[in-house]
Known about the structure:
There is one protein chain. The protein has 7 helices and 9 strands. It has 235 residues and is α+β, with helices and mostly antiparallel strands. The protein has a single domain, classed as NADH Oxidase. The strands form 2 sheets. A 7-stranded antiparallel β-sheet has the order 1-6-5-4-7-9-8. Strands 2-3 form a two-stranded antiparallel sheet. Strand 2 and strand 3 form a beta hairpin. The radius of gyration is 23 Å and the shape is globular. The termini are far apart. The relative contact order is 0.18.
Amino acid sequence: MRIxxxxxVRRSVVLVALTALLAVPFLFAQDLKxxxxxKPQTSGGKPLLTALDERKTARTFENKPLPPQVLxxxxxxxxxxxxxxxxxxxxxxxxxxxxxxxxxxxxxxxxDGVYIYDAVANVLKPVVAGDARAKVGTPAQASAPVTIAYxxxxxxDKFSSxxxxxxxxxVFLFAASEGLGAWxxxxxxxxxxxxxxxxxxxxxLYAQAVGYPGPNAYVVPPPPTxxxxxxxxxx
Length: 235
């Protein structure tokens, strides 16, 4: 837009308005607060072989948020702390990483904003306000209440895709165990990294949508009931 220098008052008004518009996202970001997650439940769930048998990709989701306890359990299962530093240097995690680099960060996307999962403190730290789910996935994927975006540092990018695969499988198995749906997918948006406020030194690898399966999602049928045994024949 071209602004004539002969109208300084109008020019000032326009500049003030543009400054205000640019500042809006930052004002909204300040409204986001850290989310202290409840202590994860680290026992229970379905047996491992049952979860493996029921693991699948869900492609529809209900418009229903995950309860805080389920969200905490999900993130812990994905890449939470399961060993204290007294066992070995650094905190142990539920998924392995090459050379114990723990190089993958979990960015958690909700309708209201983007957060980083701090596994040690069990806190979601706000990054940027606004719904970025559709920026990293398709509309079907963005319909899930939670999207986990996997981010690594460029300098540690050699093994990060493999490490992300470990975490993604943990999410799949937790979802199968808890009656949730999960969809691991590539990044589809051109401005995905910008929507997460990533720097040039960060690499957005993949994302995973998680939520309650929608009405058209495939549901594992219950095992058939064996007919009662016939009584022995009498002689």
